[in-house]
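Run folding on both entries below.
>entry_1
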Amino acid sequence: MSLSLNRNPMPEQDPQVRAKNFQEVTLGYTPELAHAEATRCLQCKTAPCRKGCPVEIDIPAFIKQVKEGALDAAITTIKEANGLPAVCGRVCPQEEQCEKHCVLAKKGEAVAIGRLERYVADSARSKGETITPLEYAKDAQKVAVVGSGPAGLSVAGDLAKMGYKVTMFEALHLPGGVLMYGIPEFRLPKDEVVQNEINGLRQLGVEIVVNAVIGSTFTVDELLEEEGFDAVFIGTGAGLPYFMDVPGENLNGVYSANEFLTRCNLMKAYRFPQNATPIHVGKRVAVVGGGNVAMDGARTALRLGAEHVSIVYRRSEKELPARLEEVHHAKEEGIDFQLLTAPTEVLGNKEGWVTGLKCVRMELGEPDASGRRRPIEVENSEFVLDVDTVIIAIGQGPNPLVQSTTKGLDVNRKGNISADEETGATSKPGVFAGGDIVTGAATVILAMGAGKKAAVAIDQYLRAKRNK
């Protein structure tokens, strides 16, 4: 049998059907498809795919185990490095990480590593995976984890396995951070996947305290000085939305993507009135931005009943920062792409509601500092998009609450916490940080990688502290 250069396709809901529901778009591999995909792996001795994995999963090993039908061994292999495989198998940009380095990608398509990771994790969950609670020493040191997103979940799980008593503090009413409020149900099921993975941490003995706003409920200094914690990890993410700073952004019908997605994902506004959080979506929606968050906002608006949804992005399709899969799915579902287009004003009526989005056409000039070609306004190209809802998805930054209430904690000019890249150590002894609060908005798996590195550093710090 000759080796296939093409990966096995993932079964999906029909685009016309899924555009009207919040069920998961991709349906996962069957055992037959997973086996067929696993047989494509060349089992390279140098394992170049591992170089692209921020948490360094032994990828050839788990794929070989899938091929052999040893799924219990495969989940064990993955979880030695990654505590959230069902999440990462769905939302990580594998095409820019592990799969980018796959030898098969030189002549054809890379092995579908992410799809196989998801298959293994989903198979383990369907069997009813059991987790044995850890036994902690009576004098076990205590670590506080601020924020329950990917970085916090990663550091909490690793520290618990090392024997530390971990308490995780979450500002919202459910743990999970961006996994709960940012990524839509149709990409990442909340109860079935996210909360299930988090419950695994609870079974390990991690305590999770919700509705706890660090910087208000407690400060970091109070956690260290009054609440008995020996170290603190800050993983509060990047949840403060950026706006365009154009006229009309305060009109009714303008949302930040952060608010829009939080209402829909975490607060289940799409189930209104069964769930009490309402959301107003008009008939014609413009989503400003070109990243994954913009795609999520556009596809969510479509599912909430919008008749026409446009992505408004100032560069060309080649520069879109969103994953290719997300762009492909958006196009299949009928999202309109207004490329090389920049908004200049949100228009409204005398009652204060959005009636349109004034835009100009752009063309690409020389590359800017990001390496992408700079968009330049085309003279006399103004036009108006007929819309009644505008969703701003041009990025987000750090909420300043923790930084502003913590003595001796250095931040950079953007307000992100300054921390050592390899250890997560900050300027304040005993305080570590990682994920988007340090790097700015990035990916789930990069935040998890930062959490893993910080866990090792916190362990070393606490061992040294105990031995003094």
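>entry_2
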Amino acid sequence: MNLSASLARLSSGSKIVNPSDDSAGLAVSMKVGAQIARTGAAQNNVNNAMSFSQTQDGYLQQVNTALTRMSELAVSAQDVTKSTSDRALYNNEYQTLGAYVADVATKSFNGVSLFADKGGAAVNLNVTSDSEKDTFQMKGVDLSLSTSYTNVTNVVAGVVTPGANSDLTTAADAAKAVGFTETAINQLATDRATIGSNEEALGYYSNQLSSLSNNLAAAKSQITDVDVAKESTNYAKENILVQSGTAMLAQANSMPQSVLRLLS
């Protein structure tokens, strides 16, 4: 029986082949195993949130390029040597870039808005931060209704209307546009800093979950995994005992026949 039990442990790699082997250890290992699974799911959630934040920042990098160019155009349009037709060309590019920034505000990630919910508010997402029910609130940014952006994107009631808030048709209008673009760039800097802090925190949570998962796996291994060297030694011992017992039994069975041969 001991030999077969030892063989079962070696072949399965587990110290607990049957619940009767270690009922308490089995119960603990089941709970630890469930926590490992939950931790893995939380790790996936954090990784997906990281991808979400990186996508946000990827778009905002392009918005930064667009706003920088818009501010350049606004200053150029103040040039007294520029004619009305020249300013019209600058304004055309300015409005096109503003429409691009407005379009970015509508983008989503797997069906989840990147920059605003349906009501126009910034998206704050609660990300699972551990194997239980705790969450980390990932702060969102708003490109849709914030006046810092709508003045340069010319969004009115959700619709892009060129020239509604700012344009470059006159030097005076261009001077106002410079202020609008500066405000938008300042807000963009704040928003990118917000996303950066989200990514930093998510990185800490990811490392924390990875460490937790490794330690839980080690703890479960201590409970359930067989010590191959020790069990191999035990198997060899039990095997020797069985073989010795078999040999002794065979010898004992042969002794009466030897006595009979002597008496005959």
